[in-house]
User: Fold this.
Amino acid sequence: MTQTSAPIALVTGANRGIGLAIAQELKKEGFRVVVTHRSAPAPKDFDAVIMDVTSSESVDAAFSEVESKFGVPEVIVANAGITKDGLVMRMSDEDFLDVIDANLTGAFRVARRATRGLLKLKRGRLIFIGSVVGSVGSAGQVNYSASKSGLVGMARSFARELGSRGITSNVIAPGFVETDMTAILEDARRSSIAASVPLGRFCSAEEIAGVVGFIASEKASYITGAVIPVDGGLGMGH
Assistant:
């Protein structure tokens, strides 16, 4: 095992976008960050393991590798996920189930395996990356909205089950974010989306990462079972 005095944070799906920004923020905050990736290359300057969140065997193998090389991760950020958007009448069972399996069941697999180490440490942070659409819904994203809504009930159940062991469980719920996917939107569509947000703009990945960094810190030790919006006011009241 590589000896390290820094606490270990594991971020799933951190090869780009929000996940990479979270990994960079946690590294800046003094964590030894281990990122997971599947098919895309791992980002430079981070320890990395291969993990497919749709496979319990892959999740277990990745955690075992991290534990043997670096130690038990005490901050877990479940960020990996997919989209398969489409109108409900045209959405196949496969498209619905694939998104649920990756986004919701995948987060469960990661958190369940992480709990083994956190219970021994008697401390830790489970941080789930949700979405504003988990509360307000989104046309064309029945599967994605359902997966992100499910994270809330799951995270709160973890919070009740593990709180007595010093383990917190929270959901960060971003709104529209500046990513590679939103960058290709036509200007008119971007303007329309921004106009629906009270703050009038998209969120940056770094703004989400900053909130994750706070929840991972000692300053947030008494916050658990919360859904923390980073959405510019888009989902207020939900």
The domain at 8-229 is CATH 3.40.50.720 (Rossmann fold). The longest strand covers residues 167-174. The helical segments are 17-28, 56-69, 93-121, 133-136, 142-162, 180-183, 187-195, 205-216. The chain has one domain: 8-229.
